């Protein structure tokens, strides 16, 4: 310990003597360690940390499955059968999204909610902080309406009052009694909710039809010691029994199980691992840079090491001293890196919500701090060992005679290796960033099937009750259309339900009239459906290819018609004109005549639409919606409109007009279609930006490394350059000599980087669009650009070499 204290004191004195060197080394390491720690905190929170529930390893997402679609929503009656027959789950619970207009105790507002079955919170292991959870008798048709409040709404609306239990809350015109409050920190799939209501009280007839899915999902908790394969086998037996008992609705229908954490995380793992690998490369470049600095510094300390050796210092004693200095540098870099990581995590929390799941779990916790400590020690070993070994080997006689020129070539070889490694790693990062840039550029050029410019969408909720009729709803919607149509700047408006591009998707089974009818619902093809009004074509800017679009004449008293998209036409009418053909829509129980063909809308976004199992689309007149659905639409419909100017500015006039039409109407969820498209590309954009930042830092560090090595080499070869110039060498010859040395290091690094990139870029293939992982144009452009930048870094020391005075150089030593 005494020797260690001496080594530390001496290391501090050496750094104080060379504050510029110490500052650059610490800052370089801090950049690498800070970036690595920030990315690891994201990976730790999203992928490594367990879900915040008791025994999270037992929680499972349960999906219905049909051929070609493994993760379909579940049907309520099937769910009840699963609950009754399962042998491997201790509990199963159903939930579905449902928003409400909350009125009665204060100013009305739109609140988010879940309809849940009675076992939802107990399955997750969540206890109310006030009151109770739902009981099985609450979760029945005809039971007294009860509600559980989310902690956020409890604090916002009731001031965290404990007297809230037993109070009433009016949701969509129905008075609910508050029976419980859930903790404010509770989130599910990254979202919190304001209210929770019993799903079993929902009296919509389609909810209890085995043929119809209403976007409800199921979670379950496995019994102790039950594995997922055992549970899957159990549910497969149940699925076969249901298929035999209800062949029309459940034939070929299965059940798919996936751990809840995997379902929440989704496909974000490859995205995060690519970024973690990129930041690992950046850390290695930083280590190589610092190793070069230490190596150059150890060459300047050759006389010191020789004197130490002459006084009896052993080989390992010198190594220990140099490693102590490296560890001290790494420790200082790690502490500064933690400060960078703290700022980086704050930036991540402000940037990534909505892009990756489980953002709320990201923090600088104990595991991240241990990672930073281990990373700092690793960095100290990586960048400190080679310079220490090199610096400890000195030729005592040569050094003491101050004639070390014969060993210059050997000493520079390791520096050249470090620089070539930096260039290779930087090239891999630059190629990755280039591929992401080209991919994002290709995505922006994709035609989404509609014109997002000057288009805006929002949700509308109108006052309603159980006595509201479909005729009343239609009359209100027509008044709403007339009101918005008179707003200055509004060019087209349409109420819509069903699918909305990049926001919501809904599908319906169908079959073509005049062709064999499929035996059951599961054998029928599916198509995405849009419930639209006459203004939808203009408001969304979709293209009409043949026939006509929906018009105001297609009302509740007219024959049912639909428009189909060109994907529908290609799939089902490849060699014939679809206009005039009839399609039977099974769940609407209507026959609709095709009156037009429109361009295909990329429902899932520019880069993912072609991967969807359902591509065909049809457009159904809103006013011809079945009566039961029309009554329900009062609770919430979507609206799309097109304006002549900035749609965001026009929303002020729209809100005023809606308030004058009916002050009880609520507008929420306002988004321009440009924002919707940008949101669908947000994850790719963030990935490209992060890779670009890492690549830029890598390029900067590589250039600094090349500059440092060439500059040091020029200083060491001043005598040689003077001799060459005295013997007749021209300045261009000296320029060629110095640039040639830099070019060799750059080209070796570029060659190695291209080989590494060819092997590694396939890992990000699923992140790309419109470009291959081995795109030759990107590889060539990045290689050329990196080589030119490396030569530019060599030019400054080369200029200094050209200005060497031969007479001064010959007296240099």
Walkthrough of the structure:
The chain is of the alpha+beta class and 813 residues long. The protein has 25 helices and 24 strands. Strands 1, 2, 3, 4, 5, 6, 7, 8, 9, 10, 11, 12 and 13 form a 13-stranded mixed sheet that branches. Strand 1 and strand 2 (69-72) form a beta hairpin. Helix 2 (19-48) runs antiparallel to helix 12 (366-392) and helix 21 runs parallel beside helix 24. The longest helix is centred in the middle third of the chain and has 38 residues, at 408-445. The protein is elongated, with a radius of gyration of 34 Å. It starts with a helix and ends with a helix. Mean pLDDT is 85; it is low at 403-410.
Alpha-carbon distance between the two ends: 42 Å
Number of helices: 25
Low-confidence stretches: 403-410
> Structural class of the secondary structure composition?
alpha+beta
Largest sheet: 13 strands, mixed
Helix content estimate? 40-55%
Strand content: 15-25%
Shape: elongated
Radius of gyration: 34 Å
SSE layout and pairing:
Blueprint: H1 2-17, H2 19-48, E1 59-66, E2 69-72, H3 76-85, E3 89-97, E4 100-103, E5 109-111, E6 113-116, H4 120-124, E7 130-131, E8 146-149, H5 151-158, E9 168-171, E10 174-181, E11 195-198, E12 217-222, H6 228-245, H7 247-250, E13 254-259, H8 260-265, H9 268-300, H10 302-310, H11 315-351, H12 366-392, H13 396-400, H14 408-445, E14 455-461, H15 470-485, E15 490-498, E16 507-512, E17 526-532, H16 536-540, E18 544-547, E19 561-565, H17 566-572, E20 582-585, E21 590-598, E22 617-621, H18 627-632, E23 637-643, H19 647-661, E24 666-672, H20 673-680, H21 682-716, H22 718-726, H23 731-760, H24 776-802, H25 806-810
Parallel strand pairs: 6-11, 8-10, 17-22, 19-21
Antiparallel strand pairs: 1-2, 1-12, 1-13, 3-6, 3-12, 4-5, 4-9, 7-10, 8-11, 9-10, 14-23, 14-24, 15-17, 15-23, 16-17, 16-20, 18-21, 19-22, 20-21
